[in-house]
Design goal:
By secondary structure, the chain is an alpha+beta fold. It has seven helices and eleven strands. The strands form two sheets. Strands 1, 2, 3, 4, 5, 6, 8, 9 and 11 form a nine-stranded mixed β-sheet that branches. A two-stranded antiparallel sheet has the order 7-10. The longest helix has 16 residues, at 110-125.
């Protein structure tokens, strides 16, 4: 019997405490301070979390930037979130899962678990040659569809010094860097989160 996936969640009420929003919000520190406070984050079985809008699954959404271009790809049939298959994306990321050696019995630092998971998730999905720098630039929320209603995006911009980026997973297809103009030309092919990020890219970069 396979083990049920555990995912990192926060109560929706904590987000509402700071201020519920639609689209992007750039005052990330005031939100992250509350979201990573002691006793706020927890791990929940993913099947339960997917049906529980009283909690938000924290999802890193990492935009890869090189010069004036951003990495984009199309989610193939092996994508973990089947509801997004066939959509174009500009975000790399996924659910935050517990790793045994990162979860001590006492004094869990969920922010550290999150940061480690982001790096691990990026390296699992793509291979980056050269240097990189990562920063959190926004939070992302969209309650207008069933996927967005149970997820909260943490938007990162990861800047790389060259375009030598290749895929490590089969779910990533048509991987390439595009300018803002080229991205806007294919906006209608994008998943909702990518559309929201694209619309705010000038503020994010």
């Amino acid at each position: 019997m396979s083990q049920i996936e555990q995912v990192l969640v926060v109560p929706r009420s904590v987000v509402e405490e700071v201020g519920m929003f639609h689209g992007l919000v750039f005052d990330v520190d005031s939100y992250l301070e509350k979201l990573f406070a002691a006793d706020v984050p927890s791990f929940m079985p993913r099947p339960e979390a997917e049906q529980d809008p009283s909690h938000k699954q924290l999802i890193p959404y990492v935009l890869i930037k090189c010069g004036d271009k951003y990495l984009t790809y199309v989610r193939g049939k092996r994508a973990g979130e089947t509801r997004l298959v066939g959509n174009r994306s500009i975000g790399i990321g996924g659910h935050i899962n517990p790793v045994d050696n990162e979860v001590p019995l006492f004094g869990i630092d969920y922010r550290e678990i999150y940061n480690n998971a982001v790096q691990r998730e990026v390296d699992e999905e793509i291979n980056i040659e050269g240097s990189r720098s990562d920063r959190i630039v926004a939070l992302l929320n969209d309650d207008t569809n069933e996927v967005g209603a149970v997820h909260l995006g943490v938007v990162h911009v990861l800047t790389v010094d060259n375009e030598n980026v290749t895929r490590n997973e089969q779910m990533i297809t048509q991987l390439e860097f595009k300018t803002l103009e080229e991205l806007h030309a294919v906006r209608d092919e994008m998943e909702t989160w990518s559309q929201l990020c694209l619309d705010g890219l000038e503020k994010l970069s």
